[in-house]
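debug: dumping io for the single-chain case to check the tokenizer round-trip. Nothing else runs in this session.
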Amino acid sequence: MSGRRRVRVDSVFFADLDAQLGESRGPRGEPSSTDFLVMELPTIADEFAEDFESLPALFPEREDYRILVTSGRLVAASSVIGQLVDVDTVVLLGIDLDLHHPPE
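debug: decoded output
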């Protein structure tokens, strides 16, 4: 398919995100899950919407599952799993964050 797909976010994704970041900012300004949703998720969703086929397959035998590994402004890195559920819709199923930025 060429063109932009719709991207939805599964409740498991939100649970994963909340477990890793929490609802409120940390005492040293660590980001909240809301911060991530506002600042990082739009770019992640765009990647899945526009370039699903170019992302690596999560499982060799399942082309409908893809993974995006990326860096961001709030976290050192994130890996996001998405599944193509029909011709024009991707569902984001889970996220794993690396919250530790390397020393400069």
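debug: round-trip ok. The beta strands are 6-9, 57-59, 62-70, 77-86, 89-98.
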